[in-house]
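Final paragraph of the annual report: two paired records, presented back to back.
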Amino acid sequence: MRTLNKNHPDDRRELVDLVPAGTFDMLQHLERQRTFSEQTFGPGMRTQGVIDHIRKELLEIEAAPTDLSEWIDVAILALDGAWRTGATPQQIIEALVAKQAKNETRQWPDWRTVPAGQAIEHVRAKPGGPLEDCHGPVAGQASAAEDAMLGEMFRAWHELRGLGWLEMFGYPDDGTVVEVITAGSTGVHDAKVMNGSWWVLSANDLWPAHPILWRPKRPAD
């Protein structure tokens, strides 16, 4: 039997015939995907493995941005990571719908003002204004002074992310030295993971650390 080529127009039409209009069931599809993935790739979160696979697929998208199958590979991996958090297919669907609804209520910049190679992110609060992060409004338990400082902290974190710093997942845990930022320090430090814990390399010694952002170590100037 000939293998269908998703990028060939004739085969795309044949693939469409496999899913007649109005018959797709997202819940059933997620249950099918989970069964296949768990049997093929094993149980558990496998977070680092899924992230590593997504990174490789993103490189393939960069090489062939019009290849639909490469974008679908990333979508499948994202859904794979979603069920591995412990979420049920129904919870994944509800989270997908809720996130779309939330995005539709947000304020977005005029896309014409953003360079094509830059992410378009929703408008966040200006200094001194109400703050919204990716998890929703800041809880009202902080004082006004604390709210202001937390706002500055979040804005700095967000701007550092825009400069290429990464959140604390997907980092190497094999002793590879990377650069980190830690709360309470104004510097960029070399650090590595040893036996599951972070250690900063300083003055020919190791110091325990709790980084908040990381990036691959840059070559010396």
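The closing record of the year follows.
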Amino acid sequence: MTAPMSHVAEAPDALSLVVVSLLKGVVYREENPSLWQSLLKLHARVSDHVSVLGLGLALDEPEGYAFLRQRAEGEGAGELPRLVARRPLGYGSSLLLALLRKRLADADAAAGGTRLVMRRHELQDLVRLFLPEGTNEVRWGERVNQDIERAVGLGFLKPLAEEDTFEVRRILKAFVTAHCLEGLEQRLAAYRAQLIEEQGGRE
């Protein structure tokens, strides 16, 4: 007889269930509370288990997420092949994620860590400031929508039941750190000024 999920922490295959779930992607407390409790109880064993694969466990208990990351060579990973693939991002996707991370930080400061939910048009407006004069708005809109879908695919945006509405996932904080945000406004302002200069000073 299969043990119910509520008792997964005591099941003999709990370690395997946790490790396989992590290998498949991010584990969120809110999406699977029983699996999350298993992870908290077994995190030391999970870390030991995945370390032989050259992976490390990234666990943020306050934020409620965990994932596996490739260990750097200096962390004892040696010359093992990568199991966690690098995913290079284009400028548009990188800009969107940086702006979302800043919006998340602003929301945390104002509301103390509540969910950040945004409509598609709000996501588009975030990057509209960097739209050079003379750009084809239809093509630009298509590119921004592609960047939004890319963020969804990477797990940084979660589509909600309401159409064109997304939750900004807090795991974004693990990939775009507070250190990365330092000086972001100055760099964005400088980039905006460069765009205006290239367009002959037109706003």
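The chain has two domains: 5-75, 91-198. This concludes the annual technical report; the extension proposal builds directly on these records.
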